[in-house]
Amino acid sequence: MRVPQEVAERITVAVSPAVAYAAVTSVRRLVRLSPECFAHWVRAGRDGEVGQRWIGFNRRGPHLWFATSQVVIARPAEEFAFDVTVFGQPVSRWGYRFAEVPGGTEITEYWLDRRSEPARLMGRRLTGRVSDVRPQANAEGMRTTLTRLKRHLEPR
To answer: Residue 53: left (phi > 0), alpha (psi -120 to 50), or beta?
Structure first.
């Protein structure tokens, strides 16, 4: 059995943990911040509540795919996370942790790889070779997302 891999990136933003938390619990805002997800369809629940489910539509290069997400952790100003599945197969957990630091909040975006080998093969078919370099691609995407989030929260 494969050990799940976690990838994380961090940024400090000059707002309180509560403000930062509110920014990432909005699915609409997350879609605008993401370099891969370009649309969503909320199926159940309210923004930021455990149990909320949505379908995200993603694009990387010429590859398009969709995935179902469900909020599994919603601790205001501390942590927000959702599990991602494709055709019922676990794919990943995406989340955000918030820590008050001098000058604002350190936001940690993390991704936990939960794919089985069959899910990895299916991912390769849906997303091309991106599936093979998913940890590196996600780290790059997290840096983009966090930079966009900082710009959103600290407008000039």
So the answer is: beta
Return the CATH number at 89: 3.30.530.20
Q: Is residue 13 part of a domain?
A: yes
- Picking from 143, 85, 80, 71, the residue whose alpha carbon sits closest to that of residue 114 is 85
Total domains in the chain come to 1
Asked if residue 1 is part of any domain, the answer here is: no
CB 129: neighbour CB atoms within 10 A?
A: 11
Mean pLDDT, the chain, as a whole number? Answer: 88
**Span 32-54, average pLDDT:** 91
| Residue range 80-103, pLDDT digits in tens | 999 999 888 898 999 999 999 999
Please tell me whether residue 2 adopts helix, strand or coil conformation: coil
Burial class (CB in 10 A: 0-12, 13-18, 19+), 62: exposed
User: Does 131 score more than 70 pLDDT?
Assistant: no
In a domain, 21, yes or no: yes
Q: 111: domain range?
A: 6-153
- Tokens 């494709």 -> residue: 86
Q: Would 18 be classed as within a structural domain? A: yes
